[in-house]
Write a structure and sequence with these properties.
By secondary structure, the protein is mainly alpha-helical. It folds into three domains: 68-187, HUPs (Rossmann fold); 196-379, Alpha Horseshoe (Serine Threonine Protein Phosphatase 5, Tetratricopeptide repeat); 384-544, Orthogonal Bundle (DNA Cyclobutane Dipyrimidine Photolyase, subunit A, domain 3). The protein has 23 helices and seven strands. A hairpin with a 2-residue loop joins strand 6 and strand 7 (230-231).
Length: 546
């Protein structure tokens, strides 16, 4: 605990701050200042170099007077973070906590993305004349210990941070504030278009809470792709037009605009290689942007070069192409390098240049599925430990290393696993219908599947992986998120990706055998789902014929 002399009230003159926020009320009953990210983003954009009106703090400021700090988390790398607009923030904390980087066997590229992004953000603040204190990865600190040390080092009286999406993070920070006797200010989570309170209310008011209903509510609420109160094109979705495989004669696929590593990225690559030599993936092959500016260029390349074909081929797969026409925006959205608002604006701004089916399919992913998954995570905490089919098989280590992969692993699984090990990424249909499909058919424990996805993917965080894996992919919730298990044999995969040498080879594959076996073994649990009536009838016919 800090001395009474150090525990002083904190000024509340920043934009949007509530006047009744009080010193020391950090836990239950806290009068936190919650600020609108939309309002602050407009204001903070005007804060350029030399425009801040603060008094830089240092370790020597302890006990000198009021010292306010802002904690910038590695998943909140916004160009217009609301704390940047606060003139009375004296120091910004960036903690490269080793404990956060070793929680799982994270892919090297995810570690590079977070480290490089944090270092770029802190450098921008310093260039703007703000005081920054970075706890480097090399110190080996745990997050809590590092934050306590910084609070005491600078004599901090008040700490501001943005509410984290993952459950439990805010509580840990609050407990530290309680222990240190300092005030708190918590900004609204800006990773999403929809305020948390509105999402919570919608889920509470809609029994069943299906994504399609949520998506239509989003369209009406925001006016996105709406014409006079009606959906653009007089249809809510164009899924039927967005299920084509790549043409047999081939199609030109624009490359991703991967640029050379900047200084911060090069340093992060070196640090990840040194501190985490056994991490999946090669850090020297890192490929993502790490600043808001380069992320916007990445977004612009997508909407101008690939969005037009995105919808048509969004479910397509190819053994030689990892990215196809996908935007690969989720790694950037999920750490705040891009905002939902700017992504949607960029896409909708191309409405006259791209097919409506492609535009709607993309918008559905961003304001529909992504926001719905956050809502499901908040509304249904029990998803974390769901295991509807009581599956217990453990994942083998080669899923993490890519070494010693069985020769008889089906071609699509082996191919997609190799690209995940290399890039820390696979597009959504490969995640769902290749990897997730195989995991479920093989009886892997959904909790282990969740851990694997959370470790290997650069865009993976608890809030998105729990509902996506436990619900959508593994059907561990018994149908709360998805209306049926997303399983198939080789025929579907062959139709969308030509993985085998012939259609007959696909029908005779281990994928197809596993599909029929799964339906047989779990017949009792699957019976009654109208979407499975036909495959179950086919399974029974096969079983009767011997």
């Amino acid at each position: 605990m800090r001395s009474d002399a150090a525990r002083r009230s904190v000024r509340r003159r920043g934009p949007g701050a509530r006047a009744d926020a009080r010193r020391g009320d950090c836990g239950q009953g806290t009068a936190d200042a919650r600020t609108s990210p939309r309002d602050l983003s407009r204001r903070s954009a005007s804060h350029g170099a030399g425009e801040t009106a603060h008094h830089p703090a240092s370790a020597g400021d302890r006990g000198r007077g009021i010292v306010k700090a802002a904690l910038i988390l590695g998943t909140q790398l916004f160009a217009a973070h609301p704390a940047y607009a606060e003139d009375d923030i004296d120091v910004f904390f960036f903690i490269e906590a080793r404990s956060s980087f070793v929680k799982r066997r994270y892919h090297a590229h995810k570690r590079v993305l977070i480290l490089a992004g944090m270092r770029q953000a802190s450098s921008r603040l310093e260039a703007d004349g703000r005081t920054v204190r970075r706890v480097p990865l090399g110190e080996g600190s745990g997050f809590a210990d590092a934050l306590r040390r910084l609070i005491r080092e600078f004599g901090v009286d008040g700490l501001a941070w943005m509410s984290a999406t993952d459950r439990g993070v805010d509580g840990r920070i609050r407990r530290i504030c309680d222990d240190e006797g300092i005030a708190t200010r918590v900004y609204d989570d800006a990773l999403f278009l929809t305020p948390a309170e509105e999402v919570d209310r919608w889920f509470a008011e809609h029994e069943g809470a299906r994504m399609e209903d949520f998506y239509r509510w989003q369209r009406r609420r925001t006016g996105i792709l709406m014409d006079g109160g009606k959906p653009a094109g007089r249809r809510w979705n164009f899924d039927a037009e967005n299920r084509e495989p790549l043409p047999k004669g081939g199609v030109e696929i624009p490359p991703l605009p991967i640029g050379p590593a900047d200084e911060a990225t090069a340093g992060a690559i070196e640090d990840v290689g040194r501190h985490f030599p056994d991490a999946p993936g090669d850090p020297t092959e890192f490929w993502l942007p790490v600043t808001p500016e380069t992320s916007r260029s990445w977004l612009n390349a997508f909407v101008t070069e690939r969005l037009a074909s995105f919808g048509r081929y969004e479910d397509a797969m190819d053994a030689d192409e990892a990215f196809l026409f996908h935007g690969v925006l989720s790694p950037l959205l999920n750490v705040g390098l891009l905002t939902v608002d700017e992504v949607v604006r960029a896409a909708v701004g191309r409405r006259d240049e791209v097919p409506l089916a492609s535009l709607e399919g993309f918008v559905r992913q961003v304001i529909g599925w992504r926001e719905y998954m956050r809502g499901a995570y908040r509304a249904w905490p029990e998803l974390m430990h769901a295991n509807h089919f009581a599956l217990r098989r453990s994942l083998e280590d080669w899923w993490y290393t890519g070494e010693g992969v069985p020769e008889d692993l089906p071609v699509p699984v082996r191919t997609v696993l190799a690209r995940v090990i290399r890039h820390g990424y696979a597009h959504h249909i490969e995640r769902l219908m290749v990897l997730g499909n195989w995991f479920l058919l093989q009886g892997y424990d959904p909790r282990e599947v969740y851990e694997w996805f959370s470790s290997l993917f650069v865009d993976a965080y608890e809030w998105v992986m729990v509902p996506n894996v436990q619900g959508m992919s593994q059907y561990a919730d018994g149908g709360r998120v998805a209306t049926k298990p997303y399983i198939s044999g080789g025929a579907y995969l062959q139709r969308m990706g030509s993985w085998w040498s012939s259609d007959k080879a696909a029908r005779d594959s281990a994928f197809t055998d596993a599909y029929w076996t799964f339906l047989d073994e779990h017949e009792d649990q699957l019976t009654g789902n109208p979407r499975l009536n036909m495959p179950l009838a086919q399974m029974r016919k096969r079983r009767a014929s011997g």
